From TrEMBL:
Residues 20-113 form the MRM3-like substrate binding domain. One of its GO terms (biological process) is methylation. It is an enzyme of class 2 (transferase). CDD domains: SpoU-like_rRNA-MTase. InterPro entries: Alpha/beta_knot_MTases (IPR029028), MRM3-like_sub_bind (IPR053888), Ribosomal_eL30-like_sf (IPR029064), rRNA_Methyltransferase (IPR051259), SpoU_MeTrfase (IPR001537), tRNA_m1G_MTases_N (IPR029026). PANTHER family: RRNA METHYLTRANSFERASE 3, RRNA METHYLTRANSFERASE 3, MITOCHONDRIAL. Keywords: Methyltransferase, Transferase. Its EC number is 2.1.1.185. Belongs to the class IV-like SAM-binding methyltransferase superfamily. RNA methyltransferase TrmH family. One of its GO terms (molecular function) is RNA methyltransferase activity. This is 23S rRNA (Guanosine-2'-O-)-methyltransferase RlmB. Residues 134-268 form the tRNA/rRNA methyltransferase SpoU type domain. Pfam families: MRM3-like_sub_bind, SpoU_methylase.
């Protein structure tokens, strides 16, 4: 460990009890969706997600690190960055055993941060959304939601609407799958499916296995909203009846594609038509 980091943090009191309030809060946020909603906070595990938050100017409320983690080079660099932003007082050093008792990861760099979840309220918008949008209609798997958010960020789609049945966009599992893409997006969660389209002034396209309307025949050279539906049931009727159903060709006759794969194909076809035709 560098002398500067060593002198600054290695002599911090080391928490050895899981009853410490910061430790208890982190454990609850990592494991309980209800607690995340109540507190309006989530946990970022690992250097990459914390760096993504800092890059987006989204500063942690608390940082928890294992004592042995202090010696990791990536952690030292991150701690130096935190010091520059006067976040030293938010740092809690815990024993290795306490850290292992709360982390949801296996082997890795032992640092996590508690952050506030950004609040975006669709009901308070002064005008309907008229730029590209991704709608997640009851997509329940955290990995699928995170992958879709990461893809949306990659192609430049900023607005995300999640209906009530979708996995939490800011849960630790979804954050890991999204690799911190959430910090570059405007995410509206908990929206009733039958209300979603009233907030849009866009052509709506929904993936469906019950149409011959192939994606490559669509004109996507204008702002659109893509709808990705439940992994088993697809897009709900309330949304589908107001959307244009679109099919992804499957010449070998598979029943359906994984929703994250389907979403990526749709979003990248949109990008191709506009910028890479």
């Amino acid at each position: 460990m560098t002398d500067a980091i060593s002198n600054k943090f290695s002599n911090n009191p080391v928490i050895t009890s899981e009853k410490n309030p910061t430790v208890k809060l982190a454990k609850a946020l990592l494991t309980q969706s209800r607690q995340r909603k109540k507190a309006g906070q989530t946990v970022l595990e690992g250097v990459h997600l914390i760096e993504a938050a800092l890059q987006a100017k989204h500063l942690p409320q608390q940082i928890i690190i294992s004592y042995s983690g202090l010696s990791h080079p990536e952690v030292q660099a991150l701690l130096a960055s935190l010091s520059e932003q006067n976040l030293d007082n938010q740092l809690t050093v815990v024993s290795d055993s306490v850290y292992q008792g709360i982390t949801t990861l296996g082997n890795g760099v032992e640092i996590m941060a508690i952050v506030d979840v950004p609040e975006h309220n669709l009901h308070t918008l002064k005008a309907p959304i008229t730029t590209d949008c991704l709608i997640l209609n009851d997509v329940q798997d955290n990995g699928n939601v995170g992958t879709l958010l990461r893809t949306a960020a990659a192609v430049g789609i900023k607005n995300i609407i999640c209906t009530k049945g979708s996995a939490q966009a800011w849960s630790p599992k979804t954050m890991r799958a999204g690799m911190g893409a959430q910090f570059g997006l405007t995410i509206y969660e908990g929206i009733e499916a039958d209300e979603v389209l009233s907030y849009l002034r866009l052509p709506i396209y929904a993936t469906s296995s019950h149409t011959d309307n192939i994606i490559y025949k669509q004109n996507l050279n204008r702002p659109v909203a893509w709808v990705m539906g439940h992994e088993g049931q697809g897009v709900c009727e309330d949304i589908m009846k107001q959307a244009t159903p679109v099919a992804l060709p499957q010449p070998n006759g598979q029943e359906s594609l994984n929703v994250a794969i389907a979403g990526a194909l749709c979003m990248y076809e949109t990008l191709r038509q506009r910028d890479y035709s």
